[in-house]
Amino acid sequence: MIVPDWVDKVDPCDANCPSREMLDLIGDRWSLLLLLVIAQGVHRNGALKRRVGGISQKMLTQTLRALEANGLVERRDFMTVPPHVEYHLTPLGASLGPALTPLFEWIEMRFGDVLAARAEFAGREAA
Amino acid sequence: MIVPDWVDKVDPCDANCPSREMLDLIGDRWSLLLLLVIAQGVHRNGALKRRVGGISQKMLTQTLRALEANGLVERRDFMTVPPHVEYHLTPLGASLGPALTPLFEWIEMRFGDVLAARAEFAGREAA
DNA sequence: TTCGGCAGTTACCTACAGGTGCGTACTTCA
DNA sequence: TGAAGTACGCACCTGTAGGTAACTGCCGAA
């Protein structure tokens, strides 16, 4: 079997391994989505909410706060009335993008295979 | 701001986008960990359980079934008594490894920055 | 003068992820 | 004779992720 190189680079069995914590951070339903649309140039609360259909105001605020707290997005409050707030990627947040590209490409390329495997597995179970 | 290339490749706002579903699959607490240790050459139920400290038998079985159902691992039951079962990566599962490498590398390289940002943010909040 | 948009906050509720503990059927070793 | 390892399945319980609804204060437009 081919063992990829990444197997030696992290020890996920160590509960202190940062990968555990980072996967908790970006592994939820909305974080990566928000990172993506902010990178696409959508910066304001209302616009984000409309663009990411299905997200509640609560989860939007909560997720943005978490991303801000971890230095991935920057919140700019213009202190005007009516309120005007903008969210932008920090350099750190922007650097995460390229790291995710291969994963999204894998999903695009291999999702068909996953669906096929799923169908084949379901068929085997039924038999 | 630099817009990475991946922003145009997927539309995560579309609920039908496979990325939503795949992130559900690998975004949980154990899937990536199990993929990793299986890639490292640990193949049997008991060995996996000992290696991934903290996982319960239930979640181990449940996660392995999910990975099997999606064609990422193969379950080989030797039909012996006492039971002997081995789990191996399928070619599809093995192909996921390289797609994750940049992400893990990003975590390794940038986790310090995240911690620093977190500390700085906590300090700002307290003030 | 009332309504909608701005960017939230708070309280409350539900569903599910995940943990604990027990049972199964068999074998080998002490 | 019984303890431990092998690979589970099932029932029950809890924590929390995430959703809903109602509220704030201010403005401009109809």
The main β sheet of chain A shows up as: 2 strands, antiparallel
**What order do the strands of the largest sheet of chain A run in, or round the barrel if closed?**
1-2
CATH topology of chain A: Arc Repressor Mutant, subunit A
Whole-number count of domains of chain A: 1
Quaternary state of this entry equals homodimer
Summarize model confidence as the mean pLDDT of chain A: 85
Structural category of chain A is mainly alpha
How large is the share of residues in beta strands of chain A? 5-15%
Unreliable stretches covering 5 or more consecutive residues of chain A? none
Radius of gyration of chain A: 19 Å
CATH level 4 superfamily of chain A: Winged helix-like DNA-binding domain superfamily/Winged helix DNA-binding domain
Overall 3D shape of chain A: elongated
Biggest interface: A-B, 66 and 66 residues
Distance between the termini of chain A: 29 Å
Percent in helix of chain A: 55-70%
Number of strands of chain A: 2
CATH architecture of chain A: Orthogonal Bundle
Separate helix tally of chain A: 5
Report the CATH C-level class of chain A.
Mainly Alpha
